[in-house]
Amino acid sequence: MTIVILAAIWIVIGLLIGAVADPIWKGYRPYGATMDYVVAVVSAILVGLFDWYILPLINIEGTLRFVAALLEPPMGAILALWVMRLIRKPA
């Protein structure tokens, strides 16, 4: 049940990061607003799942595992959006 709640949190985090992308990069959306939201949500979910399932393998468990699963997905989403903008720079 915890993973379902975390997945819902990751989706909300991705949507928030997708919305905040516009002011961060001053309206430059190379693939449109929809792709910003999709990339942010997918990357937040992937980073969150990676944290949730890989961290116990390196003996990081308990509160630290939970905190990492909540704090790293926003950073992963921002990084993915930044890379997306690097790939398609304005002319």
Gist?
With 91 residues, the chain is an all-alpha fold. Helices cover 77% and strands 0% of the residues.
Question: Your description of this structure?
Answer:
With 91 residues, this protein is mainly alpha-helical. It has one domain. Helix content is 77%, strand content 0%. It is built from 3 helices and no strands. Helix 1 packs parallel to helix 3. The longest helix is centred in the C-terminal third of the chain and has 25 residues. The radius of gyration is 14 Å and the shape is elongated. The mean pLDDT is 90.
Features:
77% helix; single chain; 3 helices; 91 residues; mainly alpha
Strand content: under 5%
One letter per element, helices H and strands E, the order comes to: HHH
Give the integer mean of the pLDDT values: 90
Low-confidence stretches: none
The gyration radius over C-alpha positions equals 14 Å
Taken together, the total number of domains comes to: 1
Question: Topology of this protein?
Answer:
Blueprint: H1 2-24, H2 33-54, H3 63-87
Helix pairs in contact: 1-2, 1-3, 2-3
